[in-house]
Amino acid sequence: MADPLATERELARLGYYRLSGFWYPARMFARNAAGQKIPCPHTGKPLRLDQFQPETTFEAAVELYRFDKALRLLMLDAIETLEVHLKTVVAHELGRNDQMAYTSTAFIEPKWLQVKPGFQNSKWVNWLSRQQNKLNDSDEDCIVAHRAKNQAMPIWVAVEAWDFGTLSIYYQMLRRKPQVWIAARLGLSDVRALISWLRELNTLRNRCAHHTRIWNQSSSNLIVLPNADPFFQNIALSDDARSRLYGLISVQWRLLKHIDPASNWIERIASLIDSKPRLPGCSFSAMGFPSEQGFPRLSFGI
């Protein structure tokens, strides 16, 4: 940075180690005499030097941080829409059968009621405890009113206390029939894909909520693609894309299009992606995009 005082202010504001994650891709690789990358003995990943690639600037690293922050805000915007709608759908589909469905094992796949070796409780018991803590801690007016009157809370009240993770786990534990009901309301027929999406979106949501870098993060769990889905057939996600942000953007847009056909979220995403800062090592492929030309607008009809 040309101004040392401005550099100090940014480091004091954002923290050295937070920013170091953004300039890390610009660090040069350690190579042997044959020019091959040397693996780190601890992580197995290519070892980085303390030297930076040519044209690396502190300003660009800060811009990448700002770019990532804008990405996180757009991700949270989409996830909020999905979460609110999913709560409504779960409450409707389960509540029309039993207003206290979320407390009943009748809707839960039997395998989640069993205690696995090495564990004290079943996944169902752990989830019940988790959601009860959410209810106890909630200060939502509808929940406070039921609690004050010592009234049982029907599912359409209880879901207001759940976070995305609680919602995601509940869907995973449901029997096939209610899973199908809920998936259909989201325009899907592939339950396995929806379970995968909710799990990965919950991880993304947590990273965003805790201000953790997302632009080049990858997951060991590839998102599952629905069988014969025209949307995904058209964009043809690679395995790399399915483990990175591009895959999650695609999943969110597939859901948002069904929930809110008037949404312009994908246009805002495309514009932001195309504004990615120019920093050595900061590539579109690190986000899972198919080329270095930017957001594939034609594949999304924009």
TrEMBL record:
Pfam family, one: Abi_2
The protein, known as: Abi family protein
Organism from which the protein derives: Pseudomonas benzopyrenica
